[in-house]
């Protein structure tokens, strides 16, 4: 089924061709009924050129000879056949047959057609048939090459995305292994030593409670490290059901909004003043946003403990109509903090990346009372659930090429280090064959186009030369009956009014065999429109005047 646009276009084209055919039929004085019939035939045949290009071309070539209304359709059908006939040999055969049919029917239909006029008609038909056909074939080949290039581009994009994904996966695995080997070992040592210290009889009750908090924190850190390493190795977050089941089995605290109260309680047990404030109706968040809220509170409390020990901490969870606003604010430090506190500045950067991935934002800055405030806005839905993704320009730079940059391919290395398809060092075989066929087809099309242009120039030169020769012949040639109509004794002015002037290069040289002119006379020499007795003889008429009268007229042949 054709799309609506093509149906409308075909309808308009058929109507236009039918109106042209109707106008041509009315001008030919063939009758209104015949003109209407030709117009209807053109309108019905026009859409068939898409389905039967060769048959419609041959039928139109035959019909345009007796019915001039098919001439505009003939040009359109030639262009369409050049586009749709597959195979150069088949197309050349169909066009040659169409040309032969058109020229043959022209010779049969016009019985009085002279040889020069028939040759001119043949050249005109050749140009009218070949030029639209070559144009249609060139357009079709160019479109096929463009489509192939688009497919090749899409293939490169897909393969580049696969290579980038593989590179990210390998990098995640490397990071996971490093984290497991280094942090896992250190956290395990912390948990063992704090566990041993907790049962020491020399510690007071308050000291045992502090050591217990440290042991629980180290165990929780080990669970979190296990989850992060699992995510990095798998390349995708675990499902919420799997995380909940794992948490239940291991006794690890929840790492979402529900686990924020646990963070506050752990800090309270360590002696910090923490206040959790909630407002608005509680609404569920996407797993990634829920985890980001937990990490934001965790980072805010960590910063408060490091940079403002002893300061009061306020955690705010405000459920807005479209997002959750999470705030962690602390007052000024009670005592100056020594410069030995480690701070790499990576925590806030990681929070900004987490918030960006879920479609939110993070803000951090000092408060009016000298404290510090960390706030984040996290939407209830993630980009995958319909939330708009961040613009490409905001993506942080990595070692992987930017999205949709299919030219950013790896340079070709040694064997086994690169994929020949994505090295951009050559085209695939399918594309190379298509380009080769297109180049050959374009070369043929250009050659035929040049030949057609030469033919057109020759036709124009022939027409101009014919007009010039006709004008010269009118000035230098007369028919035998004009010669017989002139009588000796007529006045010179009367005779010259009946005859051409004779001023032409055609009769400038009469050749041998001309009889001598009468003495004291002026003669007018003209050529005959008839042929001579042989190929070397030229029939000539001569009129000689003296004293204002015609004194002699002669008919002879010159060599």
From TrEMBL:
Its EC number is 2.7.13.3. It catalyses: ATP + protein L-histidine = ADP + protein N-phospho-L-histidine. Residues 238-257, 492-519 are annotated as: Disordered. GO terms for molecular function: kinase activity. Residues 171-235 form the Signal transduction histidine kinase subgroup 3 dimerisation and phosphoacceptor domain. The chain crosses the membrane at residues 51-76, 88-109, 115-135, 443-470. It is an enzyme of class 2 (transferase). Pfam families: HisKA_3 (PF07730). Keywords: ATP-binding, Kinase, Membrane, Nucleotide-binding, Phosphoprotein, Transferase, Transmembrane, Transmembrane helix, Two-component regulatory system. This is histidine kinase. It comes from Streptomyces mutomycini. The lineage of its organism: Bacteria, Bacillati, Actinomycetota, Actinomycetes, Kitasatosporales.
């Amino acid at each position: 089924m054709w799309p609506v646009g093509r149906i409308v276009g075909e309808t308009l084209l058929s109507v236009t061709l039918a109106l042209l055919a109707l106008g041509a039929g009315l001008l030919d004085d063939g009758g209104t009924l015949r003109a209407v019939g030709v117009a209807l035939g053109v309108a019905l045949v026009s859409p068939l050129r898409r389905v039967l290009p060769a048959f419609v071309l041959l039928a139109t070539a035959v019909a345009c000879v007796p019915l001039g209304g098919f001439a505009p359709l003939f040009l359109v059908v030639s262009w369409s056949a050049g586009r749709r006939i597959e195979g150069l040999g088949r197309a050349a055969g169909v066009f040659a047959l169409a040309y032969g049919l058109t020229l043959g029917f022209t010779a049969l239909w016009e019985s009085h057609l002279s040889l020069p006029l028939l040759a001119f008609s043949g050249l005109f038909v050749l140009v009218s048939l070949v030029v639209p056909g070559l144009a249609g074939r060139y357009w079709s080949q160019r479109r096929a090459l463009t489509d192939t290039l688009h497919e090749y581009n899409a293939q490169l994009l897909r393969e580049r995305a696969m290579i980038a994904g593989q590179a990210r996966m390998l990098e995640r695995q490397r990071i996971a292994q490093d984290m497991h080997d280094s942090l896992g070992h250190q956290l395990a040592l912390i948990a063992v030593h704090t566990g041993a210290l907790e049962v020491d009889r020399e510690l007071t009750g308050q000291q045992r409670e502090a050591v217990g908090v440290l042991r629980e924190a180290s165990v929780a850190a080990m669970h979190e490290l296990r989850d992060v390493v699992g995510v990095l190795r798998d390349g995708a977050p675990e499902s919420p059901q799997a995380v909940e089941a794992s948490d239940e089995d291991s006794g690890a605290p929840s790492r979402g909004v529900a686990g924020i109260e646990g963070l506050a309680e752990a800090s309270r047990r360590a002696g910090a003043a923490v206040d959790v404030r909630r407002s608005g109706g509680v609404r569920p968040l996407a797993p990634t946003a829920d985890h980001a809220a937990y990490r934001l509170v965790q980072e805010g409390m960590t910063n408060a403990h490091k940079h403002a020990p002893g300061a009061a901490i306020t955690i705010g969870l405000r459920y807005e109509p479209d997002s959750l606003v999470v705030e962690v604010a602390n007052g000024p430090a009670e005592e100056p903090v020594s410069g030995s506190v480690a701070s790499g500045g990576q925590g806030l950067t990681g929070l900004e990346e987490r918030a960006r991935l879920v479609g939110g934002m993070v803000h951090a800055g000092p408060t009016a009372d000298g404290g510090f405030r960390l706030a984040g806005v996290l939407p209830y839905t993630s980009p995958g659930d319909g939330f708009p993704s961040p613009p490409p320009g905001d993506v942080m730079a990595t070692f992987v090429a930017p999205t949709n940059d299919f030219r950013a391919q790896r340079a070709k290395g040694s064997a086994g280090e690169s994929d020949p398809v994505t090295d951009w060092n050559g085209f695939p075989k399918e594309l190379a064959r298509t380009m080769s066929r297109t180049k050959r087809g374009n070369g043929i099309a250009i050659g035929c186009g040049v030949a057609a242009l030469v033919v057109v120039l020759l036709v124009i030169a022939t027409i101009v030369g014919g007009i010039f020769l006709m004008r010269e012949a009118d000035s230098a040639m007369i028919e035998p009956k004009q010669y017989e109509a002139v009588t000796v004794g007529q006045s010179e002015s009367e005779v010259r009014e009946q005859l051409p002037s004779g001023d032409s290069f055609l009769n400038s040289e009469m050749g041998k065999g001309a009889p001598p002119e009468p003495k004291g006379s002026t003669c007018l020499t003209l050529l005959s429109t008839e042929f001579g007795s042989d190929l070397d003889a030229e029939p000539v008429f001569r009129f000689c005047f003296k004293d204002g009268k015609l004194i002699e007229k002669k008919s002879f042949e010159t060599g």
